[in-house]
Specification:
Strand content of chain A: over 45%
CATH superfamily of the largest domain in chain A: monomeric porin ompg
CATH class of chain B: Mainly Beta
Structural class of chain A: mainly beta
Helix content of chain B: 10-25%
Oligomer: heterodimer
Number of helices of chain A: 4
Helix content of chain A: 10-25%
Number of helices of chain B: 1
Number of domains of chain B: 1
Shape of chain B: elongated
Distance between the termini of chain B: 75 Å
CATH topology of the largest domain in chain A: Porin
Number of strands of chain B: 7
Number of domains of chain A: 2
Distance between the termini of chain A: 24 Å
Order of helices and strands of chain B: HEEEEEEE
Order of helices and strands of chain A: HHEEEEEEEEEEEEEHEEEEH
Chain lengths: 311, 122
């Protein structure tokens, strides 16, 4: 495991520059005392979801995320391979990076493989309430022009998570339920590019989770054992609605039922992708993701904030 | 070339210098079991966690429905059982009891939680 991470870190530094290498070494040998990351609020563990943004700062990464999209409205098909990184700078502040490669298969044309571009973000943990099993986060994401994109887009976002552990005894089997969600708004830096309008989009997504680990640890031990006791069935939904300059563009979105299995150092997620309407596509798609808990893999080095002695 | 060398040094450092990995300590199971109903009053509550604990910062209390402590205040991580936490109990009459735990794993992640169990007969 450590060797794999070493290879990944080496590749990362190669892709960056010498300053990144120096920074990485500094992080590696930095010392501090308390560590807390992940999506943990009280006894609630929020897994990193695939479709909707997570409401917590973290030292985590996804590699890979493989997506077989539903057939597009024009009949095209696409397979994506993506990777994400969240890295805390301070205890409540992290940055995110995301990129992916796509192989598109248009109808009647040869398949093409291309880089989708780079997304980055800066996120601040507004609050974590242990007793209420709730958390909130604000962030600013930037989708940079490059790759298949010809415009840079700024997207302020608000993400939240809430567990239902406060439900009364009569509803105790609903206590494992939790919802996370995100609301964001796209601001393209150009109103038009490559002859097409760039609308402002309102984006909204939710993940509805039923945590079997929560059921076992906090409600009733029903006798589930590994690996079932670590599974979190969920349904994610996400939509994007153009609010101006739409030129015939419609709301698009997907509904994604699936399951996340969470281990000590990583989690595995798999979801079906169902287009919410004809403007999104038709047929079924699927996504699988391997997600790494860097704070648990490397609690004394890269799994801690870059700055600050406590986390 | 220097960049490649620096990258290899960093990569090797992560592979060989990083301390042993650990993780958050979540409750794996308990005795009496979470949400269970037992016929005989237990004399001890035992919790098993998914990770080894830091004994000095790990504790568990048990309260009755009125919020009164019914444990003996002797919570401990037994020698040789680093992922286990125990606390002795007073003689429990019939009723519902809440176990509240707060632990720190050996890599300093902290977690907390609570659950209930019922005693049908004292």
């Amino acid at each position: 495991m450590r060797v794999l991470l070493a290879v990944l870190c080496t590749a990362t530094v190669l892709l960056l520059d010498r300053r990144a290498g120096v920074l990485a070494v500094a992080i590696l040998f930095a010392m501090s005392s308390v560590v807390q990351a992940h999506g943990v609020a009280g006894q609630r563990f929020f897994p990193a979801t695939i479709l909707t943004d997570d409401p917590f700062v973290a030292d985590e990464g996804s590699l890979p995320t493989i997506t077989l999209s539903p057939t597009g409205p024009d009949g095209s098909q696409e397979i994506d391979i993506g990777t994400d990184l969240s890295k805390r700078i301070l205890r409540k502040l992290d940055f995110t990076l995301h990129t992916q490669w796509a192989q598109s298969r248009p109808v009647g044309a040869p398949a093409t493989t291309s880089w989708r571009g780079l997304d980055s973000g800066l996120q601040y943990q507004l609050f974590v309430n242990d007793d209420r099993e709730s958390m909130g986060l604000v962030g600013l994401n930037v989708s940079w022009a490059g790759g298949l994109r010809n415009v840079t887009t700024l997207t302020p976002t608000f993400d939240f998570g809430k567990g239902l552990g406060e439900l009364p005894e009569s509803l105790k089997f609903l206590r494992p339920l939790a919802v996370t969600g995100n609301l964001s708004f796209d601001f393209p830096t150009q109103t038009e590019s490559a002859g097409a309008p760039n609308p402002n989009n309102f984006n909204y997504g939710f993940a509805f989770e039923y945590s079997l680990p929560y059921l076992e640890c906090c409600v009733k031990d029903v006798g589930l054992r590994h690996p079932f006791s670590q599974m979190i069935p969920l349904v994610e939904v996400a939509f994007s609605t153009p609010v101006n300059r739409n030129a015939g563009l419609k709301t698009t979105g997907t509904i994604q039922p699936g399951v996340i299995w969470s281990g000590k150092y990583y989690q595995i997620g798999a979801e079906a992708i169902i287009p919410a309407n004809g403007a999104t596509g038709h047929g079924l798609g699927a996504v699988v993701q391997l997600h790494w808990y860097l704070d648990d893999l490397f609690p004394h080095s890269i799994g801690r904030p870059i700055l600050g002695r406590k986390s | 070339m220097k960049k490649i060398f620096a990258a290899l040094v960093v990569g090797a450092s992560f592979a060989f210098v990083s301390p042993a990995a650990s993780a958050h300590a979540f409750l794996d199971h308990a005795s009496p079991a979470v949400g269970s109903s037992v016929s005989a009053a237990p004399t001890i509550v035992t919790l098993w966690f998914t990770q080894d604990l830091e004994p000095a910062f790990s504790t568990v209390t048990v309260t009755d429905k009125a919020g009164q402590r019914v444990d003996l205040g002797n919570a401990l991580v037994p020698p040789g059982e680093p992922a286990e936490l125990q606390v002795g109990l007073k003689k429990l009459p019939k009723g519902t009891y809440t176990v509240q735990w707060r632990v720190v794993s050996v890599d300093t992640h902290n977690t907390q939680g609570h659950f209930t169990f019922d005693v049908r007969g004292g």
